[in-house]
Amino acid sequence: xxxxxxxxxxxxxxxxxxxxxxxxxxxxxxxxxxxxxxxxxxxxxxxxxxxxxxxxxxxxxxxxxxxxxxxxxxxxxxxx
Length: 80
Fold this sequence. Notes:
This protein has 80 residues and is mostly helical. The chain has a domain of 37 residues. Helices cover 59% and strands 0% of the residues. The chain contains 4 helices and no strands. The longest helix has 18 residues. The radius of gyration is 19 Å and the shape is flat.
């Protein structure tokens, strides 16, 4: 045995990456997506759970299709 406790895998997520680092990277990626104007599916799910518990939860594909329809549904959005 390498001297690591049995619970060490639980703290690192089982794949050697510390859970804290994965959490931080996930938060940073969420910020980057919001800055770039991309929707955040996980944040949307959390919003639905908190504010609209009776509403049907869309699949990730349905969520992004709806985003694209609402963003580009009227056709091209450029000026030239």
